[in-house]
Amino acid sequence: MCFGKTDNILVQAKHTKTKRSVHSSCIDEVRGAKSFYESQHGRQFSLVAITNYCFHQSTFNASQMGDSVDLWDLNRIMENLKYKKFTLAEIKRKING
């Protein structure tokens, strides 16, 4: 979960060591968690699925049906990191508050 002043994001992260594309079950998982976390925190969430490799075509299709899920694969992550420089110390500071 990522909380912002006006926007909140619920993230489903999938990691692979075998370089297999992530199937659409990750979409079901993040959508299934949405109502629980909105109820627990009294906030609305946008949905994101993220992976260190790539998504299967079925995942792209499923992400557009129902509540939209924004997909971030390795290429999108790397492209966005070009514009934001940060250090491990900054990450730790964010995690620890």
Secondary-structure element string: EEHEHEHH
Q: Which secondary-structure class do the elements indicate?
A: alpha/beta
Mean pLDDT: 90
Integer count of domains = 1
Proportion in helices: 40-55%
Could you tell me the strand content as a percent range?
A: 15-25%
Radius of gyration: 14 Å
Summarize the structure.
With 97 residues, this protein is an alpha/beta fold. The chain has helices spanning 25-41, 57-63, 74-81, 88-96; strands at residues 2-3, 8-14, 46-51, 69-72. It has one domain (2-96).
Word description of this protein:
The chain is α/β, with parallel strands linked by helices and 97 residues long. It has one domain. The protein is globular and about 35 Å long. The two termini are 14 Å apart.
Write a concise keyword list for the protein shown above.
42% helix; globular; 4-stranded mixed β-sheet; 97 residues
List the helices and strands and how they pair.
Layout (H helix, E strand, L loop, with lengths): L1 E2 L4 E7 L10 H17 L4 E6 L5 H7 L5 E4 L1 H8 L6 H9 L1
Parallel strand pairs: 2-3, 3-4
Antiparallel strand pairs: 1-2
